[in-house]
Amino acid sequence: MRKVFVIILLILVGYFLTNTFSLITFGENRIGNTSEEKNVAAYYLNNTKEKTSVANVVTAIVVNYRGFDTLGEVTVLFLATTGLGSILFRRKEDEDQIERISKPSSSLVQTGSRILFPLIALLGIYVFIHGHLTPGGGFQGGAIIATGFLLMLISYKNFKAGHTMLIWVESLAGITFVTIGLWGLLTSGSFLENTLPGGELNNLISGGIIPIIYIAVGFKVAAELTGVLDILLNIKPKK
Amino acid sequence: MIVYVIIFSILSILLIASAIYAVVQKDLLIAVISTGVISLILSVFFYLMHAPDVALTEAAIGIALTTIIFVITIRNTTRNEDESIDNNLDKF
């Protein structure tokens, strides 16, 4: 009986998906007439360079035009981390009973991850500092840094991510984001208004508040994901 | 252009094959690894379709973090799929 339901559901989903996607020609230019006034995509493509002086249009949309949505996304990640932390909660007095789940790794893995960790961290920092110039940004850079911490957490049993530091980094990054948004609200009447001077296109220091916000998002995401991995890897063993 | 079509079709077949393998496989560790392969192929797709931002996100989160979190979960629970759950559901 269950299998019949599954097959019917699959056929229905497949039918509607193919119906939807057959209307979209593969590889077609869907932006449309770029000279039209009401075309939103064309507006972004035409005006981003002059208005925000940011080379990467995706970053300009994510952080500046749709910055409020990004704040919501960061909040979702924060809530997920908080939920995980509250489920896998551990008390201060149990701290000595906690065991790292992974087995001690070989010296080959240890040396390799010790060499790789600074390089991965550097790549992550590069990705979110150059978020307004090259592809990538805060989320991607933060996730890359978290994978570096994961490598260290797996290979070294004594490596600690430092919970107080993680909490401080995350809180300060979140406060920076909201403060910049409120500053825009106070000075020019809209949340996350780009109040700083744009600077020259394609320079590292350009785009006003966009690089500052992306650096804050990068630190926040890195701290949150590292916290998740740290919680998952250090669990009190069953008696 | 023809090279693109060949690459796309090979990768699509691999994508669907690894997705089916992840569902069918009873050993959950292998299933998790094949979901990682899905993410890998997807990030190549995103890159080929001129969306490098999404490709970076998929590479960092889909391949590395999600796979590792699932592997940690499997370590804490069981490695093999529980057959009894499947049998209980069939009674409904």
Task: Describe it.
The complex is a heterodimer of chains A (239) and B (92). Chain A contains eight helices and two strands; from the N terminus they run ααααβααααβ. Chain A has one domain. A two-stranded antiparallel ribbon of chain A has the order 1-2. Chain A is mostly helical and 239 residues long. By secondary structure, chain B is an all-alpha fold. Chain B has four helices and no strands. Chain B has one domain. Chains A and B meet through helix 6 and helix 8 of A and helix 3 of B.
Strand residues, percent of chain A: under 5%
Shape of chain B: flat
- Residues in helices of chain B, as a percent range: over 70%
The total of beta strands of chain B comes to 0
Taken in chain order, the helices and strands of chain A follow as HHHHEHHHHE
Number of helices of chain B: 4
Oligomeric status: heterodimer
Structural descriptors:
heterodimer, A: 239 residues, mainly alpha, two-stranded antiparallel sheet, 8 helices, globular, B: mainly alpha, 4 helices, 0% strand
Q: Secondary-structure map with pairings?
A:
The complex is a heterodimer of chains A (239) and B (92).
Chain A: H1 2-22, H2 40-52, H3 57-65, H4 67-87, E1 99-100, H5 107-129, H6 138-155, H7 163-188, H8 210-233, E2 234-235
Antiparallel strand pairs in A: 1-2
Helix pairs in contact in A: 2-3, 3-4, 4-8, 5-6, 5-8, 6-8, 7-8
Chain B: H1 2-24, H2 28-48, H3 52-76, H4 83-90
Helix pairs in contact in B: 1-2, 2-3
Summarize, please:
The complex is a heterodimer of chains A (239) and B (92). By secondary structure, chain A is mainly alpha-helical. Chain A has one domain.
